[in-house]
Amino acid sequence: MSTLLVDNIGELVTNVPGHGEGGPLGLRRRAAVLVEAGEVVWVGPARDAPAADRRIDVDGAAVLPGFVDSHAHLVFAGDRAAEFAARMAGQPYTGGGIRTTVGATRAASDDELRATVRRLRGEALRQGTTTIEVKSGYGLTVTDEARSLRIAAEVTDETTFLGAHVVPAEYADRPDDYVGLVCGPMLAAAAPYARWVDVFCERGAFDADHTRAILTCGQAVGLGVRVHANQLAPGPGVRLGVELGAASVDHCTHLTDADVDALASTRVDPGDGDGPHTTTVATLLPGAEFSTRSPYPDARRLLDAGVTVALATDCNPGSSYTSSMPFCVALAVREMRMTPAEAVWAATAGGARALRRDDIGVLRPGARADLVVLDAPSHLHLAYRPGVPLIRQVLHNGVPQ
Ligand SMILES: [Zn+2]
Description:
Elements: E1 3-12, E2 28-36, E3 39-45, E4 54-57, E5 62-65, E6 67-69, H1 81-88, H2 98-107, H3 110-126, E7 129-132, E8 134-135, H4 142-152, E9 159-164, H5 175-190, E10 196-201, H6 208-220, E11 224-229, H7 237-243, E12 248-251, H8 257-264, E13 267-268, E14 277-278, E15 281-284, H9 286-292, H10 299-304, E16 309-311, H11 325-336, H12 340-354, E17 371-374, H13 381-384, E18 391-396, E19 399-400
Parallel strand pairs: 1-4, 1-5, 6-7, 8-9, 9-10, 10-11, 11-12, 12-15, 15-16
Antiparallel strand pairs: 1-2, 2-3, 5-17, 13-14, 17-18, 18-19
Helix pairs in contact: 3-4, 4-5, 5-6, 11-12
């Protein structure tokens, strides 16, 4: 098997606490990374780098783990640019536009959906995202949810069944019947293509009882739990997620002290060298607040309470049509008072935590060789130079893209 040396790295973000200069990013200067068979096999000072079959000289650039986007909705048809324009002209966001996308998605062919998924996956990869979670949720029939997940599974292993995105129009006056469909034939058809189950727990979507019922059914067939929680208003989503052992509760824009305490109560230190973390991660999606012109979540409150925070794009045609993790990092720093180091960690290692993965979001022997080379000397530039295409090169599974 041939080896590849990524050499002459000016600043390497390892996300291994205590490495190099310490801190959560585990920064190393003048470093090199050796890759073999899609895995990192060695990390150390460039001067000690072993011989390799091939070598990429990054000429003093910063290198970090590929971004882990743990929340995206890529399987859809149509766009909602007009709705965005209306919001920017003053109309509030209510989540109701999801049904517009449901209609377009049901009408689309497999190949049309596949083309959109692949286009967005490629767009994300070019911006440094090497792992992306993809949800269903715009089909909302047994057939359309199953085919959404089947198509999602063509581009990622991190697929999430979101049949409970909204109650579709044809079930508007009998939501209990829709929950029965989701827990029964829809889950049965979707589960073979899904790793996770998710519910949009919000007024106007699914209440606490419905959310609990659906998540519990998903767990019973082996799916991990994630929740869209507390996006538009305070509600039961975060605490329900914690109670059910969710890997992540996502949005967390409107939190009470009890919500923050519940998240903090899941904090553990497994003694694996990666430091303490909360088993339920708070995944913040600042692209949604940007695109709906809403107040941002209070990241500092969560971080100060010891809650593990991830950043993700929420890429979807309605409330956050961005696939850019660097944009989310910049928003998190400027608008959510995260430090650049916290934001970069949350967009890499934090996303990995939110997907319960220890082989990504980190650069150490045994990890997947997902590396991003920046057109910059430091990770700081991701927030310092917003909107600038700083991703010079991406290695995915050790293969230059
Ligand atoms: Zn979402």
